[in-house]
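Hey, quick one: can you model this chain's 3D structure?
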Amino acid sequence: MEWRIWGGGLVLGWGLLAWMANRSAYFPMKYPGGEWDEQERIGAEEVWIDSGGVRLNGWWRARPGAQCAVLFLHGNAGNVSHRSGAMEDFAAAGAAALVIDYRGYGKSAGWPTERGLYADGEAGYQWLLKKGWKGDRIVVVGESLGTTVAVDLAARRQVAALVLEAPFPSARAVARRILPWLGPGIVWGFNAKSKLASVRAPLLVIHGAQDEVIDYELGVEVFRAAREPKELWTIVRGHHNDLHVVERVEYRRKLRDLMMATCNAATSSPPRS
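Sure thing. Here's the predicted structure for all 273 residues.
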């Protein structure tokens, strides 16, 4: 009888530890925390998007003459108000841009889960379609945790191109680097690597060689698992959160070149407004 009590306690303890570990993947900052004055500074429009009954908040920045629209899926921390710099980069590259806050982030309702984040990425994509953008003119850009959402979306939907900044193959692969013996047993999900074979869009992987959060080798693993056409851009001096800053001029040029090559070949026409 005693071994059953001990066994039950171990199972319960493992379950609680796993639950806590998987919940710790999210670091949402709820409104009013953040830099919300940035919306006015960059001229972004606040939008609201339905994601299966969950109300999401986002920023939309139109650009006259844009041939592409970027759907930006951010990482696991902060909120949309911390991504104004990225929106400026997309505009400088010639694109309109939508940045959404996942459920539980910023002004969005709900609480983040893996399935919920995938649904939120889909909701952002559908919003752009309703705005008049077709799949062959939508460039999906994912950042860190957002790369798994981006891959999931691009594996199921038509996109012009896919950009992954500091990607990783799966949550388990990251956990294995941090806690080699325990991590893979308590952390799972966000398996982007298994979906890459279904992505047919041109791919650009960007990773900092000095990344202190997601090891550079994990980004290389993602790149190797993907189909052609693909490009790996290693930012030698780049860390996890400064890829836009360290090589800003080249970053914008890379995006602009990718968009020109893909969106200029689109068969659809961009919306007039």
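One thing worth noting: The first strand starts at residue 27 and ends at 28.
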